[in-house]
Amino acid sequence: MSVKILAIADLHLGRTASVPNISNPPSAAETLDEIVRFAMDNAVDVLTLSGDIVDNYNRYWEAVSPLQNAITQLQQAGIYVIMVAGNHDFDVLNEVIKNSRSKMLFLLGKNAKWESIQLNINGQDIQFVGWSFNSRYTIHDPLRDFDPQQISKNIPTVGLLHCEADTPESQYAPVNSDTLSGSGVDVWILGHIHKASQLKKSNPLIFYPGSPLAMNAGEQGIHGASLVIIDDSGQINYESYPFSAVRYENIKISIKPELNQDEFRSLVLNVLEETSPKLIDDSNNLQFLIYDLQLSGEHDNPVEIANWAQELTDIRHRIPEYPNTQILIRKYEISVNPALTALENLAKESSPAGKLADSIICLQNGDENPFINKLRQSWHEKQNALSKHNTFRELNHFDTTKADEADRYILQECRYLLTELLAQQENE
Fold first, then answer.
1. Lowest-pLDDT range of 10-14, 66-70, 300-304
2. Helix 261-282 crosses helix 302-309 at what angle (to 10 degrees)?
3. What pLDDT sits at residue 402?
4. Dihedral, CA atoms, 103, 105, 111, 112, nearest 10 degrees?
5. Which has the closest alpha carbon to 7: 289, 290, 211, 166?
6. Most C-beta atoms within 10 A of its C-beta, which of 12, 96, 211, 333?
7. How far, in Å, are 26, 44, 237, 316 from residue 22 at the CA level?
8. How far apart are CA 243 and CA 196, in angstroms?
């Protein structure tokens, strides 16, 4: 027989995902319901929660009912719940669960003291060890207080810890992954980092399951839980499962010079429909796929692109094959430069815009003109003065001899200025 452990962390009950212009976005409580159903449907033996299960003390009333309901359902299904507190719920997690009468619920490591339990599951002995936060911040490495003697070396051991690995200056229980490796624990399930990551594949397995619900655009990619299976020979298998109803991603679209508005709209939809299916397939029951969009390339009139882009955040698109997933654009950035054909016509003018257009053409072709030479000289003088400034002297990394660096900077600024100038003329 084997022991199945479903591992989650950083659920943050009381919070919802950030979805633009949606009045009832997916919540952490709904995600917990999905996790409980998965655990029961897949004959999981233990659900572990590695801290920050509740978002904060002021979320108590939003968290207490969903968590207690989950614990009740899991107990009825014969599933243990083992948890530690993190920096968000150190002062509330015990309050949320204290009225539970479940004999299958354990909060380990209260008062920042290591604690272990031994269980017999499916005829197999297994032990869990954990440490909980007792304040919002701690610069103390909890592993300094870990005594390997408190765990048996003869049975598999699973450690639960809310911490920040390999970041010594952290205020959130900084630990060293080498110390975790040498602790005698077979599996470390960590919390605090919302992105799923594996620090060590085996001997021991060390990983962050990440947050099961992506909360904002800073939490891109797949979010879910991890299933750890320990067989009676001590062999450990590990697999991730997506649960988040929301997925955030970046996407780039390249603009061509002669694009009109209809073609722009078609281009955006085509890219969304080409990119989205794989992302949806890799997820599970995805309700919202939310993009941050970057527009780049060249156009005869970049101001038109800026005007057309204003409607992008109104997109609510569904692909026929994936009717349950709504595709949105949260925000967009524009890095579209004037096209060369437009520049050549503009460069014939004696206006400031014409002078900038001529300078851009010269820089792109590697040519020179008096204005460009003056800009280069000014750039080198300022860089040289900066490199000798007392504030930066010890860094001593400025190389003022690279002409191509100056040209790249000047070209970038000329393009920016020309785009702004053309936009002003358009408005006038």
1. 300-304
2. 50
3. 62
4. 130
5. 211
6. 211
7. 10, 34, 39, 11
8. 12
Q: CA 350, 354, 356, 357 torsion: positive or negative?
A: negative
pLDDT at 400: 46
Separation CA 124–CA 215 (nearest Å)? 37
Question: Phi and psi of 259, rounded to 5°?
Answer: -65, 135
pLDDT above 90: residue 97: no
What is the pTM for the complete model shown? Answer: 0.84
Structure tokens at 198: 């594996």
CA 57 to chain centre: 24
Q: Which residues pair with 332 in a beta bridge?
A: 293
All residues at 6 or more sequence positions from 100 whose CB lies less than 8 Å from its CB, including other chains: 68, 71, 72
The strand pair at 205-208 and 224-231 is best described as unpaired
Q: Is 39 in contact with 74 (CB distance < 8 Å)?
A: yes
Provide φ and ψ at 336, rounded to 5°: -100, 125
The pLDDT of 1-28, averaged and rounded, is: 96
Pairwise CA distance, residues 406 & 137, whole Å: 45
Residue 403 has a pLDDT of: 64
What are 84's strand-pairing partners? 50
Q: Please, what sign has the CA dihedral across residues 192, 194, 200, 201?
A: positive
Instruction: Return the CA Rg of the chain.
Output: 28
Residues in Cβ contact with 314 at an 8 Å cutoff, skipping those fewer than 6 apart: none
